[in-house]
Amino acid sequence: MAKKSDKNPIQKFLLSKKEFPLVAGILSGVYPMFFYATNNYTLVNTWGHLLYFVGVFIILPVLLIYGVYIVSKSVSAGKFTKYVIPVLGSFLFMFFMHIAVYGGLRIKIILGLFIIACGIGYFLWRHSKKILVIQAILGLIGFVTFIPKPFESAAYDESWQEQKDAIESVQFTTTPNVYFIQPDGYVNFSELYQGHYQATDSSFQQYLGSNGFDFYPNFRSNYASTLTSNSATFMMKHHYYDRGLSLETFNARNIIVSDNPVLTIFKNNGYKTHFLTELPYLLLNRPQMGYDYCNFSYDKVSYIGTGLGERVDILPSLKESLDREEGSKFFFIEIFNPGHINGSPQSSHGIVEERTLWLEGMRVANMRLKEMITVIKAKDKNALIVIMADHGGYVGLEHTGEAYTKTQDRDILYSIFSSNLAVHWPDGIKRGETHLKSAVNLFRVLFSYLGQDKNYLENTEENSSYIVIKDGAPSGVYKCIDTNGDIIFEKQE
Question: Which of 5, 19, 104, 200 is the most buried (most CB within 10 A)?
Answer without folding.
Answer: 19
